[in-house]
Amino acid sequence: MKAILTPKWIAAHVVVVVTAIVFINLGFWQLGRLEDRKLENQIAESRYTATPEELGVLVAAVGDDLDSLRYRRATVTGSYETEHELLTRNQVYRDQAGFHVVTPLVTEDGGAVLVNRGWVPLPLDTPPVAQAAPPTGDLTVTGWINPTQTRPAFGPTDPEGVLDVMSRIDIDRIQQQTPYDLAPVYLVLEGDGGDELPVALPPPDFTNEGSHLAYAIQWFGFTLTGVIGYWFLVRKTLMPRTKRR
Question: Is the pLDDT of residue 130 over 50?
Fold first, then answer.
């Protein structure tokens, strides 16, 4: 027994115990993140399933807290204006690369709401996309709300100037080349599930809970493997002395 109570072994014991505690806490941290993700999904789904309301009313009600409108379904009445239509690149549908078609819907007050009308294949790279023309005249559209998209820490930057293909729906950036006062959020158009261009995007997935559970199991597994392995190491160290007795 004294063999595993030397300073060297004591230091090893401390390292194993501290490491096990850290790994266990990381496992519980991932479980906590899983619960947060479940709650976020529940909130998002409750927004999406709520009865659609007029977009202007919803925006006015939340003030600057626009992120609270994410996935909320809304209606807007106006007419599409294709002269300032644009595309967002790097969009995939059924493993095929393409673009999303973003068209301003001009409202009665002279403002406009950007509407993501869906996906078109890669060869259709010049807006306005004739093969995916929107309906003409006044109409009321329904879609779910998304806040403006901003550039992440790493990623392409859309240069200055008038662009018809962009990396994301950055409303402030698009405002620079659009004559209408744009709403601070945009709509993703709800579709009927058909393959007519542009292909409407599928509803948001509120069942995806991420990889938090798998990560938690990994951390607990690392802890168990390490403790068992260390126990066998200690046992192997003690066994020769025991046999000689």
Answer: yes
